Amino acid sequence: MKDCEIYSDLRVPCGSNIIVRVDGRNFSKLAPRLELEKPYDLDFVGIMVATCQDFFQEFSPCFMYTFSDEINILLDDVPFSGRLEKLNSVFASFFAGSFTRQIFQSDRFSKLLSTTFKSISFDSRVIPLNTDGMVEYFKDRQDEAWRNCLNGYAYWTLLEEYGKKEAALFLKGKKKQELHDLLFDRNINIMNIPLWQRRGVAIYREKVIVEGYNPVKQEKIVSHRWKPYVDWELAQFNREFFLSKDIITE
Ligand SMILES: Nc1nc2c(ncn2[C@@H]2O[C@H](COP(=O)(O)OP(=O)(O)OP(=O)(O)O)[C@@H](O)[C@H]2O)c(=O)[nH]1
Ligand SMILES: [Mg+2]
For the structural domain made of 2-147+193-199, what CATH number should be given? Predict the structure, then answer.
């Protein structure tokens, strides 16, 4: 029967950067059950970030990026010998388990789900890319976060004037600048909203200086350590950003 496990040897290309993107399943239905604030709920984002931190500790990726219900993971050291089925299944289940645990640790959310709990799941896909492709990929996801942000604010603002269908129809095909102007006309300057809503949140290692003391030599010692850092005020992604964080090299 082992012969029938025909996908088990599918592996990601050797030496390639690997991005894994996981995305919450049916989170548009979960959002009202959790009574999430619209369009952004800081407690929910906090749980997505805590889930990322949990993953960071377990699998040591070099970079993670989250917005809405998606999480992007950049791996240089690919676990499970790059076996695709293993990566997708273990990562998706890790996020579902970690997210569920965080939800039930939250006083606010656990109360809401205790009677109507439906199991939470994430989908997962693997994207092999070279360095340039990787930078383009993250630029593209951050662009999507920005579009999401404009759409979210525009939709929930228009709902005060129109019904759901009309608001969605009104927004269909609108360019980013049009959405920006639409909000500006209604006294919302989207440039004033927090950066994490516009650009998402990233987790990466940051070099920190650690001061110690050598009791034998009786002198202060200064060393560097890499510590996971949650960046809520992200710069725009480009090659310089990834170079400056030592995520890529020249
Ligand atoms: N109110 C609220 N909703 C959020 C927030 N973050 C994510 N969501 C919801 O999560 C959804 C994520 O979009 P999708 O992944 O396209 O929707 P989905 O229902 O998860 O669909 P599948 O991923 O295809 O299963 C959004 O449409 C929102 O409904 C938030 O901060 N506040
Ligand atoms: Mg989703």
Answer: 3.30.70.3000
Which among 179, 167, 75, 171 is positioned nearest to 124, based on CA atoms?
75
- Average pLDDT on 202-207 reads 95
User: How far, in Å, is the centroid of ligand 1 from the Cα of 199?
Assistant: 16
Residue 129 alpha carbon to ligand 2 centre in Å: 23
Average pLDDT in the chain: 94
In the chain, where are the structural domains located?
Answer: 2-147+193-199
Question: For atom 27 of ligand 1, which residue has the closest CA?
Answer: 28
Which amino acid is it at 70?
E
Question: What is the layout of strands, in order, in the sheet containing 201-214?
Answer: 122-129, 17-24, 70-75, 63-67, 201-214, 219-231
Whose CA is closest to 152, among 190, 109, 195, 99? 190
| Span 217-243, average pLDDT | 95
Torsion of CA 84, 90, 93, 98, to 10 degrees: -130
Conformational region of residue 187, where left means phi above 0, alpha means psi within -120 to 50, and beta covers everything else: left
